[in-house]
Amino acid sequence: MRLVAGNWKMNKSPEEARAFGQDLSRAGLPEGVRALLFPTALALEHLVATVPSTVGVGVQNAHPEVCGAFTGEISAAMAKEAGASWGLAGHSERRELFGECDALAAERVSGLLRAGLNVMFCVGERMEDRERGLTDRVLRRQLGALKEEDLAHQRLSVAYEPVWAIGSGKAAGPKEATEAVLMIQEFARRPLTVLYGGSVNPTNVERYFQSGELGGVLVGGASLNPQTFRELLVAVAL
Which pTM was predicted? Predict the structure, then answer.
């Protein structure tokens, strides 16, 4: 079943998240598609309390350790207790804006898996990497940082998000997305669920599934409005 995941980034207060969940519950969800949302940590419990029970809710960031002197961080175990069933790791904004290296992104994946959460691991290249023909090399480097057992874990999914397409309005084409999906699958050496993310909306989403290789989409801005998010679910539903 296809998956539509929404990353809210630093948007929506706890009360706004509660209202979103209520709106989504009243509208109802289409069958034949899975829904997943990544709210801010403060809004997580409020969203869990109001969205339909079939909607997964995840934490955007979690420290690999269970507890400790890590000011400003939360652990995967804390997120799970608050109702999270998923965790995001390796997002390009964490890498680009906060200087997170491949090794730290991989450690976050390990921590999330140890806590019993499903993981969405993000990979993607910059425009200069693509122009120099380095897309495969970048993706293999990012995936290669994962522990072998984590890459093989059934609770791990991968989101291909080319950095140049995120929030730019310049989405990668279906051919580019499919090529990346196949490379990631080949690297993992197993039938891994791979999503595409980058300027996806209800108008262009269906074309990414025409090849039959994509497992879902990870969206940003298109997930902030409950009506638009539901339109995405309807467009993707089988």
Answer: 0.96
> 151-192: per-residue pLDDT in tens?
999 999 999 999 988 877 777 889 999 999 999 999 999 999
Catalytic residue IDs:
91, 161
| Range(s) of the domain holding residue 164 | 3-236
The per-residue pLDDT for 170 is 77
Distances (CA, A) of 66 to 5, 32, 38, 61, 158: 26, 36, 20, 13, 23
Q: Answer whether residue 64 shows pLDDT above 90.
A: yes
DSSP codes, 17-39: HHHHHHHHHHH---SS-EEEEE-
Give the C-alpha distances (Å, rounded to integers) separating 2 from 15, 177, 194. 29, 16, 10
CA distance 34 to 54: 8
Residues 6+ apart with CB under 8 A from 19: none
Report strand pairing: 86-89 vs 118-123.
Answer: parallel
State the CATH number of the domain containing residue 215: 3.20.20.70
Q: What is the pLDDT of residues 79-115, one digit of tens each?
A: 999 999 999 999 999 999 999 999 999 999 999 999 9
What is the total count of domains within the chain? 1
The answer to whether 35 touches 234, Cβ cutoff 8 Å, is: no
